[in-house]
Specification:
This protein is an alpha+beta fold and 494 residues long. It has three domains: 277 residues, Thrombin, subunit H, CATH 2.40.10.120; 95 residues, Roll (Pdz3 Domain); 96 residues, PDZ domain (Pdz3 Domain, Roll), CATH 2.30.42. The chain contains ten helices and 29 strands. The longest helix is centred in the middle third of the chain and has 14 residues.
């Protein structure tokens, strides 16, 4: 099975290398021959001058981490089925096994962006290393310290002290790169030292599920172990991406590599240099994609935008008037084509900035102004802790579901949090419209077509009304799981 792999190279005292990354270019776009078809191009031109202009700013990274392991007697090899037996024997005889430490080494690539000694690489290259060495093209080795790092876009900012002027490269605009544009990558594959590969941009805006802000450039450049953190250059010698991962069944290059665009990483680097940590904008909503069924139920026409499934009670969206069920279609003047566009855009905005948000609510465009908060790592979704009035109610059935009032016994049966309000689903018929949409026993229906429901009778009536409505649009249910995470589900009523 093919896997997306981060591409640093790791080795211990008994191991050579491990991962890598790099990128590429098939050469500069060449002139179209007058006598040839419009798509025909000559072979790539000589890239030597371009390589000469950037090579000295590309470095190799060697990161070493000391890992303490449970000790053993010097005469006993670790990693056998008899470890516990030997340790018990030593304890009984008053022998203290010596702690065992091993060295794990990560080999990667990087590049200098400031002559004061600022070096950029991947976060996964340096990890939690005890010692980081930056190796330059002339053979010099300088010890580096970490100014800041961020796992969400996989970048680390290092600082070295040099008595010689350092060659630097600058970031270009990745947003201007088109599919087919030529690129080159310079890096440290397999620990061999500086190596250049070339290719083209194969695709843009790739989502490989590696983090919340995936927006990778895809390239056919050769990417291999040890090239993680290396630069992907355009044909003007500007860094338009940081080589980060490859798609490969074996760990070697098959011509599908991914680089984090400069437009995504440059603002993060600026924050890490200034503050030592990120300061991302925070909207305070939980969103979900809009599929065709949900778009139909909301009267959107085509599937677009980001559907708000929940609003953080303590977040910036709440006082701005954003609501669950709103579909965000514009943020800060930029169109939200799909839900994954929104987190990247919000995170790129400064904390405290006032931003106009356009939402579709009840079929109409509504504009709200939100003052962004700050997104903290490890932040958890907050939930309302309002008091709730529990009621005993008769069981109702609709759309292949049976549902009941939220009684203390049912809360206990399905481990439903006390803060959750609504009507609990107690059974779902296999093959029913509800089952096909993923509803199951223990889910709690909070709203039907934007109307709060407190009893099974409320749900039954709202669904009956939906069946009588012109066009018979799907019933839009706001459904919570036992932990309080809500989502919208559009269930056909006909």
């Amino acid at each position: 099975m093919n896997a997306v792999r981060p591409q640093n190279a790791r080795r211990s005292t008994r191991q050579a290398f491990a991962l890598a990354v790099v990128s590429v270019l098939v050469g500069a776009p060449s002139a179209i021959l007058p006598s040839a078809p419009a798509y025909a191009q000559t072979k790539p031109g000589n890239l030597a001058d371009l390589v000469d202009s950037v090579a000295d700013a590309v470095v190799n990274i060697s990161a070493t981490q000391t890992i303490e392991e449970k000790g053993a007697s010097p005469d006993v090899q670790k990693g056998t089925p008899f470890d516990d037996m030997f340790e018990e024997f030593f304890r009984r005889h008053g022998i203290n096994p010596r702690p065992h430490a091993r060295q794990a080494q990560s080999l990667g690539s990087g590049f200098v962006i400031d002559s004061s000694g600022i070096v950029i690489t991947n976060n996964h290259v340096v990890g939690d290393a005890n010692e980081i060495m930056v190796i330059f093209n002339d053979g010099r080795k300088l010890k580096a310290k970490v100014l800041g790092k961020d796992s969400k876009v996989d970048v680390a900012v290092l600082k070295v002290e040099s008595d010689k002027q350092l060659k630097t490269v600058k970031f270009g605009d990745s947003d201007k790169m088109r599919v087919g544009d030529g690129v080159i990558a310079v890096g440290n594959p397999f620990g061999l030292g500086e190596t250049v590969t070339s290719g083209i941009i194969s695709a843009r805006n790739r989502n490989i599920d590696s983090g919340p802000y995936d927006d990778f450039l895809q390239t056919d450049a050769s990417i291999n172990k040890g090239n993680s953190g290396g630069p992907l250059f355009n044909m003007q010698g500007e860094v338009i991406g940081i080589n980060t991962a490859i798609l490969s069944p074996s760990g070697g290059s098959i011509g599908i590599g991914f680089a984090t665009p400069s437009a995504s990483v440059a603002p993060v680097i600026a924050q890490l240099r200034e503050f030592g940590q990120t300061r991302r904008g925070w909207l305070g909503v939980r969103i979900q994609p809009v599929d065709d069924t949900i778009a139909d139920s909301l009267g959107l026409g085509t599937a677009r935008g980001a559907l708000i499934a929940g609003v953080d009670e303590k977040g910036p969206a709440k006082p701005a008037g954003l609501q669950a069920g709103d579909v965000i279609v514009k943020f800060g003047g930029k169109e939200i084509k799909e839900s994954r566009d929104l987190p990247r855009l919000v995170a790129s905005m400064p904390v405290g900035k006032s931003v106009e948000v356009v939402v579709i609510r009840d079929g109409k465009e509504v504009t709200r102004t939100v003052t962004l908060g700050r997104l903290e790592d490890g932040e958890t979704k907050s939930a309302s802790v309002e008091d709730e009035k529990l009621q005993e109610s008769a069981v109702e059935k609709a759309l292949g579901m049976e549902f009941s009032g939220l009684t203390p016994d049912l809360r206990k049966t399905y481990n439903i949090k006390d803060s959750i309000k609504g009507v609990v689903v107690t059974s779902v018929d296999p093959g029913s419209p509800a089952a096909e949409r993923g509803l199951k026993a223990g889910d709690v229906i909070e709203e039907v077509n934007h109307q709060t429901v407190e009893s099974p009778a409320d749900v039954a009536k709202a669904i009956a009304d939906a069946k009588k409505a012109d066009g018979k649009k799907p019933a839009l249910l706001l459904v919570s799981n036992a932990e309080g995470l809500s989502r919208f589900v559009a269930v056909p009523v006909d």
